[in-house]
Amino acid sequence: MTFVITTYDWVPPFAVGYVRDLRIRWACEEAGLPYRIETTSVREKTAQHFARQPFGQVPILRDGDLSLFESGAILLYLGERAEALMPRDAAARAETQQWLIAALNTLEPPVMAMALARIFDQDARAEELALPRLRERLAQLVPVLEGRDFIAAGRFTIADILLADVLRLVDSLGELAAYPVLAAYMNRITARPAFQRAHAAQVAHFAQAA
User: Fold this and answer.
1) Which of 2, 126, 175, 185 could crosslink 34 through cysteines, CB 3.0-4.6 Å?
2) Rounded to the nearest 5°, which phi and psi values hold at 56?
3) Domain map of the chain by residue range?
4) CATH 3.30.70.790 fits 3-85+194-202, yes or no
Protein backbone atom coordinates (compact mmCIF):
# COMPACT_ATOMS: atom_id res chain seq x y z
CA MET A 1 0.00 0.00 0.00
CA THR A 2 1.17 3.52 -0.79
CA PHE A 3 1.38 5.98 2.08
CA VAL A 4 -0.19 9.40 1.50
CA ILE A 5 1.67 12.37 2.99
CA THR A 6 -0.20 15.66 3.26
CA THR A 7 1.70 18.93 3.08
CA TYR A 8 0.85 22.52 2.23
CA ASP A 9 0.23 23.78 -1.27
CA TRP A 10 2.54 26.76 -0.69
CA VAL A 11 4.91 28.18 1.92
CA PRO A 12 7.00 31.38 1.98
CA PRO A 13 10.51 31.03 0.57
CA PHE A 14 12.25 30.91 3.96
CA ALA A 15 10.30 27.75 4.87
CA VAL A 16 11.09 25.79 1.71
CA GLY A 17 13.22 22.80 2.64
CA TYR A 18 12.15 22.96 6.28
CA VAL A 19 8.45 21.98 6.25
CA ARG A 20 8.12 18.89 8.40
CA ASP A 21 6.69 16.64 5.72
CA LEU A 22 10.39 16.41 4.79
CA ARG A 23 10.93 14.17 7.82
CA ILE A 24 8.31 11.75 6.57
CA ARG A 25 9.51 11.81 2.96
CA TRP A 26 13.02 11.12 4.25
CA ALA A 27 11.92 8.12 6.31
CA CYS A 28 10.05 6.65 3.36
CA GLU A 29 13.05 7.17 1.10
CA GLU A 30 15.37 5.48 3.62
CA ALA A 31 13.13 2.43 3.96
CA GLY A 32 11.94 2.19 0.36
CA LEU A 33 8.34 2.72 1.45
CA PRO A 34 6.07 3.88 -1.40
CA TYR A 35 4.38 7.23 -0.86
CA ARG A 36 2.69 10.04 -2.68
CA ILE A 37 2.06 13.67 -1.77
CA GLU A 38 -1.26 15.43 -1.49
CA THR A 39 -1.72 19.08 -0.59
CA THR A 40 -3.92 21.18 1.62
CA SER A 41 -4.29 24.95 1.45
CA VAL A 42 -2.12 26.92 3.85
CA ARG A 43 -4.20 30.08 3.36
CA GLU A 44 -7.71 28.64 3.59
CA LYS A 45 -7.66 25.67 5.92
CA THR A 46 -10.69 23.46 5.43
CA ALA A 47 -12.94 21.66 7.87
CA GLN A 48 -11.63 18.40 6.40
CA HIS A 49 -8.08 19.43 7.28
CA PHE A 50 -9.02 20.27 10.87
CA ALA A 51 -10.89 16.97 11.14
CA ARG A 52 -7.65 15.16 10.38
CA GLN A 53 -5.30 17.54 12.21
CA PRO A 54 -6.98 19.52 15.02
CA PHE A 55 -4.27 22.21 14.96
CA GLY A 56 -4.37 22.73 11.20
CA GLN A 57 -0.74 21.76 10.68
CA VAL A 58 1.21 19.36 8.49
CA PRO A 59 2.36 16.68 7.95
CA ILE A 60 -0.41 14.13 8.01
CA LEU A 61 0.14 10.50 7.05
CA ARG A 62 -2.62 8.30 5.72
CA ASP A 63 -2.20 4.52 5.65
CA GLY A 64 -5.47 3.00 4.50
CA ASP A 65 -8.08 3.97 7.08
CA LEU A 66 -5.48 5.22 9.56
CA SER A 67 -4.68 8.94 9.64
CA LEU A 68 -1.83 10.22 11.82
CA PHE A 69 -0.49 13.67 12.58
CA GLU A 70 2.67 14.95 14.34
CA SER A 71 5.96 14.13 12.67
CA GLY A 72 7.31 12.28 15.71
CA ALA A 73 4.27 10.01 15.95
CA ILE A 74 4.42 9.34 12.22
CA LEU A 75 8.12 8.46 12.37
CA LEU A 76 7.47 6.05 15.23
CA TYR A 77 4.70 4.41 13.20
CA LEU A 78 6.95 4.06 10.16
CA GLY A 79 9.67 2.71 12.43
CA GLU A 80 7.31 -0.08 13.39
CA ARG A 81 6.80 -0.83 9.72
CA ALA A 82 10.44 -0.89 8.65
CA GLU A 83 13.49 -2.25 10.45
CA ALA A 84 15.63 0.10 8.35
CA LEU A 85 14.18 2.90 10.50
CA MET A 86 14.07 1.33 13.97
CA PRO A 87 15.78 -1.78 15.37
CA ARG A 88 13.77 -4.75 16.55
CA ASP A 89 15.96 -5.35 19.61
CA ALA A 90 14.08 -4.02 22.66
CA ALA A 91 16.95 -2.03 24.14
CA ALA A 92 17.93 -0.48 20.81
CA ARG A 93 14.29 0.39 20.11
CA ALA A 94 13.97 2.07 23.49
CA GLU A 95 17.15 4.09 22.91
CA THR A 96 15.88 5.15 19.49
CA GLN A 97 12.55 6.26 20.93
CA GLN A 98 14.31 8.05 23.79
CA TRP A 99 16.41 10.18 21.46
CA LEU A 100 13.59 10.88 19.03
CA ILE A 101 11.52 12.23 21.94
CA ALA A 102 14.51 14.15 23.33
CA ALA A 103 14.98 15.85 19.96
CA LEU A 104 11.31 16.82 19.94
CA ASN A 105 10.81 17.75 23.59
CA THR A 106 14.19 19.02 24.78
CA LEU A 107 16.06 20.38 21.76
CA GLU A 108 13.40 21.56 19.33
CA PRO A 109 11.49 23.93 21.71
CA PRO A 110 14.43 26.34 22.28
CA VAL A 111 15.28 26.14 18.58
CA MET A 112 11.72 27.11 17.66
CA ALA A 113 11.68 29.88 20.28
CA MET A 114 14.77 31.34 18.65
CA ALA A 115 13.38 30.92 15.14
CA LEU A 116 10.06 32.55 16.05
CA ALA A 117 11.81 35.49 17.70
CA ARG A 118 14.13 36.08 14.74
CA ILE A 119 12.08 35.16 11.69
CA PHE A 120 8.46 35.80 12.59
CA ASP A 121 8.43 38.34 15.41
CA GLN A 122 11.72 40.07 14.57
CA ASP A 123 11.93 40.67 18.30
CA ALA A 124 15.50 41.31 19.44
CA ARG A 125 14.57 41.06 23.11
CA ALA A 126 12.83 37.70 22.66
CA GLU A 127 15.82 36.48 20.67
CA GLU A 128 18.16 37.59 23.45
CA LEU A 129 16.09 35.64 25.97
CA ALA A 130 15.88 32.50 23.81
CA LEU A 131 19.55 32.26 22.89
CA PRO A 132 21.06 31.12 26.23
CA ARG A 133 18.75 28.12 26.54
CA LEU A 134 19.42 27.09 22.94
CA ARG A 135 23.17 27.30 23.45
CA GLU A 136 22.91 25.38 26.71
CA ARG A 137 21.08 22.52 25.00
CA LEU A 138 23.53 22.42 22.11
CA ALA A 139 26.49 22.33 24.50
CA GLN A 140 24.88 19.48 26.42
CA LEU A 141 24.48 17.47 23.21
CA VAL A 142 28.14 17.75 22.18
CA PRO A 143 29.58 15.09 24.55
CA VAL A 144 26.80 12.69 23.58
CA LEU A 145 27.72 12.82 19.89
CA GLU A 146 31.50 12.88 20.33
CA GLY A 147 32.80 9.64 18.89
CA ARG A 148 29.39 8.56 17.60
CA ASP A 149 28.27 8.32 14.00
CA PHE A 150 24.60 8.07 15.02
CA ILE A 151 22.60 9.22 18.03
CA ALA A 152 21.12 5.84 19.01
CA ALA A 153 21.53 2.08 18.63
CA GLY A 154 24.88 2.36 16.83
CA ARG A 155 23.14 2.77 13.46
CA PHE A 156 20.90 5.09 11.49
CA THR A 157 17.37 5.36 12.89
CA ILE A 158 14.37 7.66 12.93
CA ALA A 159 16.04 9.43 15.86
CA ASP A 160 18.71 10.65 13.45
CA ILE A 161 16.05 11.97 11.09
CA LEU A 162 14.50 14.03 13.86
CA LEU A 163 17.73 15.25 15.43
CA ALA A 164 19.48 16.11 12.17
CA ASP A 165 16.41 17.99 10.96
CA VAL A 166 16.29 20.07 14.14
CA LEU A 167 20.01 20.80 13.78
CA ARG A 168 19.41 21.95 10.20
CA LEU A 169 17.21 24.71 11.59
CA VAL A 170 19.88 25.60 14.15
CA ASP A 171 22.33 25.85 11.25
CA SER A 172 19.97 28.12 9.31
CA LEU A 173 19.95 30.44 12.34
CA GLY A 174 23.74 30.64 12.27
CA GLU A 175 24.18 28.90 15.62
CA LEU A 176 25.63 25.51 14.66
CA ALA A 177 29.13 26.42 13.50
CA ALA A 178 30.24 27.01 17.09
CA TYR A 179 29.67 23.30 17.76
CA PRO A 180 31.85 21.39 15.26
CA VAL A 181 30.82 17.97 16.59
CA LEU A 182 27.15 18.77 15.99
CA ALA A 183 27.83 20.36 12.61
CA ALA A 184 29.79 17.29 11.49
CA TYR A 185 26.98 15.01 12.64
CA MET A 186 24.34 17.04 10.79
CA ASN A 187 26.43 17.14 7.62
CA ARG A 188 27.06 13.41 7.79
CA ILE A 189 23.42 12.48 8.29
CA THR A 190 22.07 14.88 5.66
CA ALA A 191 24.62 13.64 3.11
CA ARG A 192 22.64 10.41 2.93
CA PRO A 193 21.06 9.88 -0.51
CA ALA A 194 17.59 9.45 1.00
CA PHE A 195 17.74 12.90 2.58
CA GLN A 196 19.00 14.42 -0.66
CA ARG A 197 16.10 12.90 -2.59
CA ALA A 198 13.52 13.95 -0.01
CA HIS A 199 14.86 17.49 0.22
CA ALA A 200 15.02 17.92 -3.55
CA ALA A 201 11.46 16.64 -3.86
CA GLN A 202 10.15 19.13 -1.31
CA VAL A 203 11.99 22.02 -2.93
CA ALA A 204 10.58 21.01 -6.33
CA HIS A 205 7.07 20.70 -4.87
CA PHE A 206 7.04 24.25 -3.55
CA ALA A 207 8.81 25.61 -6.64
CA GLN A 208 5.84 24.46 -8.71
CA ALA A 209 3.51 26.38 -6.38
CA ALA A 210 5.51 29.61 -6.54
Assistant:
1) 2
2) 70, 25
3) 3-85+194-202, 90-192
4) no
Q: What CA–CA distances, in Å, run from 79 to 83, 87, 101, 165, 177?
A: 7, 8, 14, 17, 31
Q: Say how many C-beta atoms besides its own lie within 10 A of residue 52's C-beta.
A: 16
Chain centroid to CA 101: 12
Fold held by 90-192: Glutathione S-transferase Yfyf (Class Pi); Chain A, domain 2 (1.20.1050)
The string of pLDDT tens digits covering residues 29-85 is: 999 999 999 999 999 999 999 999 999 999 999 999 999 999 999 999 999 999 999
Contact 16, 206 (CB under 8 A): yes
**Which residue type sits at 192?**
R
Angle, CA 25 vertex, CA 20 and CA 28 arms, to 5°: 140
Question: Over the stretch 120-173, which tens digit does the pLDDT of each residue have?
Answer: 777 788 889 999 999 999 999 999 999 999 999 999 999 999 999 999 999 999
N- to C-terminal Cα separation, the chain: 31
Q: Of 150, 164, 148, 153, give the one whose Cα is nearest residue 198.
A: 164
